[in-house]
Amino acid sequence: MKCASCASPPANKKSADDADDDLDAANHQPSSSASSTESAPEADRLASRMESLLVQIRDLLQATVRTMDRSRRESDETQRLMKDWIMAAAVIDRLCFIVITLFFVVGTLTLIVLCFYPHRPFSAD
User: Where exactly are the structural domains of the chain?
Assistant: First the structure.
């Protein structure tokens, strides 16, 4: 029967041949003599894997920041263009209002003057 967590035989059922086993029977951890030789490459692989994962995370974060920054700049540019067009529309609206007001005032005054001014195109003097 083997231990479920590390697949080694239990401490009380170890045979004499397994006495040199790499695992301590008490806590199922690699023994100190074997850990330095076997865990060093494993630790290096783990450190290398961890480093590559950290590099990938950093690259993803940088890409996310660049994307968010570009999106913010595009949004700011769009807002600026909208404000410019709103200002241009307000200027054109004001100009049209002034022109139409002048047209109506001049037209109204012309009609009033023509009503009170005696019109005699063919006078026999």
Answer: 39-116
